[in-house]
């Protein structure tokens, strides 16, 4: 049998780290970066670069995108390091590298911090201080403010913590201009307001998981019915804010048409979530089918909305 590294007890379960296995799979190190999260984060950052006035050398633009990717991944690894105890309890996360014993916690923490630090230094060298500072703050916000503080302390964790994923358009914009403007702040606000209805849809059908882990997600603390109403309210507010680029003259009717259609679809999804067949306590009688559809649609929604901004910019 292979040599055992220091094992760890998480709750009532003991994780054993076999030296012959730990860190041997490259895929595990890739998974620690949360690649599915990175893809959307990087895309919104690219939109910020494209929409910003002025010019940035293509090589520097690629470095900026790489830094956003690294920062998101580094923060994701730190998140997995800290959340390894609850990941061990939740069915949808139990196979992650840390709770499965395939990566040692100390290695994951060093990896996450190292990637994060390198991303900030590289961003500063390639662009400017403001961009590097925002990038560093976004890592701190997700790793410390959201993961360590908010996630386990308040049902508003996603509302406040949503800011962490809303920084990339600001970062992309400032990497080109070196300054702030109203337009990137609007893009930040759109992503910020999109996060609650997106994540609460997931929380509705993963409610039992969060309850077992002791995470005070909104459906766990306030109930499913309250969450369904909040999803609809935030979706309507989001729809209003997405039209502000047209109001302020940043975009034309091309973007406006796309935004109206996408918002109509998102609001329709939110209404379906609200009206889904429920018990008197607001629990779904249909395995939260509407919430699952709404969650998937929200991913397509944000991608297409930001894609419409790019198309409108070039047309």
UniProtKB/TrEMBL annotation:
It is a multi-pass membrane protein. GO terms for molecular function: protoheme IX farnesyltransferase activity. It is found in: Cell membrane. It is an enzyme of class 2 (transferase). Pathway: Porphyrin-containing compound metabolism; heme O biosynthesis; heme O from protoheme: step 1/1. InterPro entries: Protohaem_IX_farnesylTrfase, UbiA_prenyltransferase, UbiA_prenylTrfase_CS, UbiA_sf. The chain crosses the membrane at residues 37-56, 62-82, 108-126, 132-150, 157-176, 182-207, 228-248, 254-275, 295-314. Belongs to the UbiA prenyltransferase family. Protoheme IX farnesyltransferase subfamily. Converts heme B (protoheme IX) to heme O by substitution of the vinyl group on carbon 2 of heme B porphyrin ring with a hydroxyethyl farnesyl side group. NCBIfam families: cyoE_ctaB (TIGR01473), PRK04375.1-2 (NF003349). Carbon 2 of the heme B porphyrin ring is defined according to the Fischer nomenclature. This is Protoheme IX farnesyltransferase. It comes from Commensalibacter nepenthis.
